């Protein structure tokens, strides 16, 4: 009987009538479900329709994310067909999963998401995408490629530039660096740390301590307070974002140790409380510009929903090093009309 069954299966396979699942090639991992592809194509109904966009934000405790939402809101306001519904996950993976599910229940025409962490949101993003909803992943990545486009800066390159600036300009003879990292499960934290190590490779710069502060100013201050007690010599504080660097600066100021420590951050937001002004005013020695991608996300949404155009799978945003030499110029340029 088993031999008969084997012969039958072999016959069906030969005839192409039996399809067996292949390990690791589900539509969720591949982002290639035929029904989802067709539905995503059908999502574009042209300029004569109105569209609801869902924006799932990782948190609003970071000034960078507040600015991202503002950039999305400002850009969307220029598109009469667009209405944007925002959700704040408050740095809670479970909450963001619920947020995405609620947005999908509300039948958004397109999903924009900046994931709190990659792994916990990968399945939800893939499910939305494979069901036919165009998905724009913004700033932080998910695993796999089940999305329409990823928009963000090259975080490895940003970290590398920060490391090169430390090794070549701030500590050309070598020195001791303390690193304050972002949320461990988020892709920018891993990539910025990797890039920084590439940037200082071959130099006499040494990382003597590295602690996570989850992108938050207060946690950056707490971590730096503890580090100052254990590290008698710190030449540079490298932070994965400006708010944590500012928190570290406050801890050093309280301990009377700001002299002799250069503080380097990432974001360089062009707002009065942002990193560019912190550089201009001397609290930070440097910051790397990290565009929010909000305007670019809405432009991609226009192509996907209104113009029926394809968008690149990856859209890499440019960055630049901000120091006291160019901070005033960069701030003026970023705040100039148009």
Total E-strand runs: 12
Shape: elongated
Largest sheet: 6 strands, parallel
With strands numbered from the N-terminus, the spatial order across the biggest sheet is 2-1-3-4-5-11
Low-confidence stretches: 1-32
Characteristics:
six-stranded mixed β-sheet, Rossmann fold, six-stranded parallel β-sheet, alpha/beta, 2 domains, 45% helix, 338 residues
Describe what you observe in this structure.
The protein has helices at 2-15, 27-30, 34-42, 63-77, 93-105, 118-130, 155-170, 187-200, 217-230, 242-254, 275-280, 294-307, 327-334; strands at residues 51-57, 82-88, 110-114, 135-138, 149-153, 175-181, 205-212, 236-239, 262-267, 286-289, 314-317, 321-322. The chain has a six-stranded parallel beta sheet with strand order 2-1-3-4-5-11, sandwiched between helices. Strands 7-6-8-9-10-12 form a six-stranded mixed beta sheet, with helices on both faces. The chain is elongated and about 60 Å long. Helix content is 45%, strand content 19%. It folds into two domains: 39-139 and 293-307, Response regulator (Rossmann fold, 3-Layer(aba) Sandwich); 155-290 and 322-334, Response regulator (Rossmann fold, 3-Layer(aba) Sandwich). Mean pLDDT is 91; it is low at 1-32. The N and C termini lie far apart (76 Å). It has 338 residues and is an alpha/beta fold.
């Amino acid at each position: 009987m088993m031999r008969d069954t084997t012969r039958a299966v072999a016959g069906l396979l030969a005839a192409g009538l039996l399809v067996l699942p292949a390990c690791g090639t589900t539509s969720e991992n591949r982002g290639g479900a035929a029904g989802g592809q067709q539905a995503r194509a059908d999502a574009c109904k042209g300029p004569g329709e109105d569209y609801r966009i869902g924006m799932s934000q990782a948190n609003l405790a970071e000034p960078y994310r507040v600015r991202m939402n503002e950039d999305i809101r400002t850009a969307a306001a220029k598109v009469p067909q667009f209405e944007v519904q925002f959700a704040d996950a408050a740095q809670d993976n479970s909450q963001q999963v619920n947020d995405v599910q609620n947005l999908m229940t509300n039948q958004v025409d397109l999903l924009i998401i900046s994931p709190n962490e990659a792994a916990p949101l990968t399945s939800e993003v893939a499910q939305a995408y494979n069901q036919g909803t165009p998905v724009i992943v913004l700033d932080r990545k998910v695993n796999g490629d089940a999305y329409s486009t990823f928009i963000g800066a090259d975080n490895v390159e940003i970290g590398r530039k920060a490391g090169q600036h430390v090794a070549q300009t701030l500590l050309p003879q070598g020195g001791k660096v303390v690193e304050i990292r972002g949320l461990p499960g988020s892709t920018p934290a891993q990539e910025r740390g990797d890039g920084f190590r590439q940037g200082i490779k071959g130099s006499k710069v040494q990382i003597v301590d590295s602690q996570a502060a989850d992108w938050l100013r207060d946690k950056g201050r707490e971590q730096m307070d503890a580090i100052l007690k254990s590290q008698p010599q710190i030449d540079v504080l490298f932070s994965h974002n400006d708010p944590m660097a500012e928190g570290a600066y406050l801890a050093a100021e309280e301990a009377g140790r700001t002299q002799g420590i250069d503080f380097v951050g990432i974001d360089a937001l062009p707002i009065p409380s942002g990193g560019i002004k912190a550089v201009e005013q001397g609290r930070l020695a440097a910051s790397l510009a990290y565009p929010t991608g909000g305007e670019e996300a809405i432009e991609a949404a226009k192509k996907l929903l209104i113009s029926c155009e394809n968008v690149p799978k990856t859209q890499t945003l440019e960055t630049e090093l901000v120091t006291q030499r160019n901070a005033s110029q960069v701030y003026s340029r970023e705040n100039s009309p148009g």
